[in-house]
Amino acid sequence: MQYNAWFRCINPKCIATYPLNRILYRCESCGSLLEVQHDMDALARRDAKAWMKLFEDRYKSTQWPYGSGVWGKKEWILPRISNDNIVSLYEGGTNLFWAERFGKIVGLENLWIKLCGNSHSGSFKDLGMTVLVSQVKQMISEGAPIQAVVCASTGDTSAALAVYCAAAGIPSIVLLPKGKISIAQLVQPIANGSLVLSLDTDFDGCMHVVQEITKDETLYLANSMNSLRIEGQKTVGVEIVQQFEWQTPDVIIIPGGNLGNVSALGSGLLMMRDLGMIARLPRIVVAQAQRANPLYRSYLKNFATFEAMQAEKTLASAIQIGNPVSVEKAIRTLKQFDGVVMDATEQELADAAALGDTTGMFNCPHTGVALAALIKLLKAGKIDKSEHVVVVSTAHGLKFADFKVDYHEEKLEFPSRYANKPIEVRASVDAVKDALHNALKNRRTTNA
C-alpha cells in the first residue's frame, strides 16, 4: 500500500504545500512554520487493530530498521524514504516505569515516568534526529547540495545531531552558548567529531545566527523549527499508549523550552485518535522553569498574547529559552488537549529532582521542572490523585552530574532540602560503628 507525506503551512489561512525533499523551514507564501502532513485517507485503509498488531510485531525486533521505536512506525513518519538511507541507532523503546514510591509521597496513586533519556545520546532528541538525518542522507543521494547539518543548542540537540551525523558520515556543525551548558553536554559533539562554535550569547542568540547562516542551502537546519524533527519525537505519545496496552493516560507532563516537543507529543496522539486507535485525548501539561517561562506567562492570559522574554540563568539549562520558535504550534496543541502550563522556581525544580532520586530515579533538572509542576498542580487540585499521570523525563541525569554534586554539597543559591553529604570518618571499626549508629538513628527520626 502506498503512503505519502509532505510539508504543509501551519497557517490555517494558507494552503501552501511542499515536498519533503525541499530545503525550506518556513512557508514561502506567508512565512509561517511548516508541519508534516500525512495522507490520512490512505492510512485509514488499514484499520486500528491492524496498526496495533503491526507496531507490536515490530517493537524491539531485530528486523532492520523496524525494531527502532521510531522506524517501527515508518508509515507514520517518512513513508517514502529508502531503508538504505535510514540512520538509526535503535532509538525509542525507552522505559516506562511505575514511580510508586514518589507517587505515594506526593499523593498520587498512578504515576509513571517515561525515561526518554535512556537513549544513545542521553535525551529524547534522538527520536527526532534519526528522522532528520535520515532525510538529509536521502536528499544527498538525490543530489541535494547539502554539505553539513547545523543546529543551535543548549546541549541535547547538539549531542543528538553529532552522534547521528557521525553514524551517517555527514559533517555536523553546532553553535553553543558559551559557559551555559554542562561539560558532559559540551563533550558529546566534540567526541563525535562536530565542528563546535562557542558563541558569547544565549540560546536565543545562537538560534538567530543559525537561522541566518542556513539561508545557504549547503547548510541544513536541524533545530525543531524544522518539522522533520517533530515527526520522530511524536512517537513518544504513541509509544506511551502502546506501553499501556493501547490505553490513554489522563495527563502527560512534559518540560518545555523551544516547545517543539509539545506539538510533537500532540501530533502523535492526534494521529492515533484520527485512525481510531484511541477514543480520547489526555491533558497535556507543559512545565517551564520560572526564569524562562514565556509560555506560562501567556497561559495566564489565556494565550491572548505571547511575549518573548530574556531568559535568565536556570539550572534547567536545556530549557533556558525566552523566545521559542515553536510557540504557535505549542499553543495550538495545548488548546486541542485542554492543556495547562505551570512553572517552577529553582528551588522547587532542584528539590523535586532530588526527592525523585531518593525513590530510585536519577533526574535531570528538566525532569525536576516537570516533577515540581506535578506537585504544584496536585496541591492546587488541578490534577486529581486518582488520575493516571505520565511524566516525560527528557534527558539522563548523568549529563547533569555537576548540578547534582552542587545540590548535595549545598553550593546552590538556596537550601538543599534533601542534601545527602558523605560523612567523613576515621578509618577504624569503632569510629565507623559510631557514625553508622548516629546516622541511622537520625534517619529513623527524620522518617518518623
Task: Label this structure with key terms.
448 residues; Rossmann fold; six-stranded mixed β-sheet; four-stranded parallel β-sheet; globular
CATH class of the domain at 96-122 and 230-408: Alpha Beta
Question: Oligomeric status of the shown chains?
Answer: single chain
- Work out the radius of gyration: 22 Å
Which structural class should the secondary elements be placed in? alpha/beta
CATH topology of the domain at 96-122 and 230-408: Rossmann fold
Number of helices: 16
Largest sheet: 6 strands, mixed
Task: Return the CATH architecture of the domain at 96-122 and 230-408.
Answer: 3-Layer(aba) Sandwich
Portion of residues in beta strands equals 5-15%
What is the strand arrangement across the widest sheet?
4-5-13-10-11-12
Average pLDDT metric: 95
Quantity of strands, as a count: 13
Can you write the helix and strand succession as a string? Answer: EEEHHEHEHEHEHEHEHHEHEHHEHHEHH
Gross geometry: globular
Catalogue the unreliable spans.
Answer: none
Which helices and strands appear, and what pairs or packs with what?
Blueprint: E1 5-9, E2 17-18, E3 34-38, H1 40-43, H2 48-58, E4 96-98, H3 100-106, E5 110-115, H4 125-141, E6 148-152, H5 156-168, E7 172-177, H6 183-191, E8 195-199, H7 203-213, E9 219-221, H8 227-233, H9 235-243, E10 251-255, H10 260-274, E11 283-289, H11 294-299, H12 327-336, E12 340-344, H13 346-357, H14 365-379, E13 388-393, H15 401-408, H16 429-447
Parallel strand pairs: 5-13, 6-7, 6-9, 7-8, 10-11, 10-13, 11-12
Antiparallel strand pairs: 1-2, 1-3, 4-5
